[in-house]
Input
Amino acid sequence: MNSPTNAEQYQSYRGLPVLAGLCSMERAVESQWSVETSTSQLKRLHYLTRRLHETLTARITAEPIYELKTAYSHHAYLLAEYTSAIRKRVGEMRVPPLGLEDVPHDSLKLLMDEIISSPTTETLLVGAYEVVLSAILDAAKQLQQAAHPLADAPTVRLMKLLQFELLEVAEFGRQAIACLISQQQREDMAHWLALLANCLKHAGNLELTSADDGSQGDLPGDVPEVAPHYSKTPFQYQAEPRRDERFHDSYNAGVNPEAFLYDERFSARDKTLMMYYKRIREIDVPEMMASILYELRDEEPWEFHMEMSRQLWDEARHAMMGEVGFLSLGLDWTKIPINFTWSRNLNLQLNARERHGVLFFIEQGLMPKTGKKYEWEVGCDSGDGLSGMFQDFDWADEVLHAQIGRRWYMPRYKTLQESLAFGDRSWTKVVSQWHAYREQGLTEHRNWWPDLYQEACRRWNVAPDPVALAFHTTYEESRADLKKISP
Output
C-alpha cells in the first residue's frame, strides 16, 4: 500500500487536479471501506425514504390544508426518486438477494409506524420533517463523507444529490412547523418525541459505526426501552377527502365546465376561466390517486409506485397552475366552490383497481384532438399567455400519464378496448348523488359561474357576453366526459 508520504509527493501532469477531481491522493489511498458497509447503510436509508414516501402519500387525502396536500405530493415524489436511485445503486453492488424489502431494524419500523399513525397534522409535520428527514439527511452526509470517493464514487454522488434536493424539503418543513405549531403544542409532544429519538438510538442513529453488517447491533446501556404509542392502533387510511376552511360548498356540482369548454358559442378568453377552474379542481386527483398507491402498496412492484407518484405530483402541480392562473387575473379562487365529489365518490364507492380503471379511461380520453390538444389551442387563442403555457405543459404531462397507464394498467387486460371498457364500467358504477347531496342540505348546487364571469369581465374592462353569462349546465345528467349519467 502506498504511504501517505508517497501520496503527498505524487505529481499530476502540470499540476492538474488528480483523480478526475473526486478527491486528493491522500484520501484515495485510505482503504477502510467495503461494499458490505456501503450497502448496509444504503439499505437503512432506503427503508426510511420508502416509508416516508408511503407516509406522506397516505396522508394527502385526509390532510385539509391545501398547501400541505400539494407539498406532500411533491415531497413524496422526490422521496420516490431517491428510493429508486438507492435501489439501483444497491443492485449494482453484487449483493443478491438485495434484501430491499426487509426491515433493517425493528426500531426503525416502530419509528415509521408511529409517524404514519400520528393523529394530527402537527404531529405528522414534526415527526416526518424534523425527526425522520433530519435523520435521512444526517445519514446521507455521513455516508457521503465516509464512503471511498473513488471506489464508491456513485454512492458519494447519490448522497450529494439527495442532500441538495431534500435540504429544500427540510426547509419547507421547518417553515411549516414554525407557522402551524405553538410552543405549547410542541411541549405536549415531548413524550412522543422522546420515543422517536429513542427509536433512532436503538437503531444506532443510522451511524456507520453500528450494525454495518445489517444486524440489529449492540444496544447502548443508557437507552430506554421503546414501545408503541400512537401505533398501538394500526394506521387506517382515511378515504374521505378533507379541505380547509377556504374550500366551501364542496359538494356543489351546479356548473359543468366541460360543457362550457366544448361549446363553440363561447370565446377562448371566456373558456380560460373554466380551464383555470378545471386545473385547481385537479387537487381531487391526488386525493384519489393516494388511495390507489396506499391500497396497492403490497400488490404492485416499486416501479409502479415510482411512476404513479410522478403522476400524482403532476396532478398537484396542475392544481397549483389553476391557483396561479386565477391570481394572475386578480380573481379570488376561494370564492368559487371547488368540487370534491369526484374523488370522494370514487374513494368511497370503488376499489383501488376500479379507481385505476377510471383514471386510465380518463387519461386515454384526453389524448385525441378534442382533449388536451384542444385545451392548449384554447389557451393559445385566449390572449392569456399564462393559460397557453400552462396548457402546453399540462398536455405534455398527460401524454406521460397515458404512457404510465399503458405500462401499469393495460397489461392486466387482453386488449386496449377491454381495459378501456373496464374503466368506463367502473365510472358508470359510481352513483353521483347529485340529488341526494341537495336533499341532505349539503349543497344547493348554486350556479357560481355568473359571479365569476362578471368579475373577470370587469377586470378585462369588457361587457359580458349575454349567452356566456346565461350558461347554467350542471352535472345533474352528465359526468365530466359529457357522457349521460344513467337515471
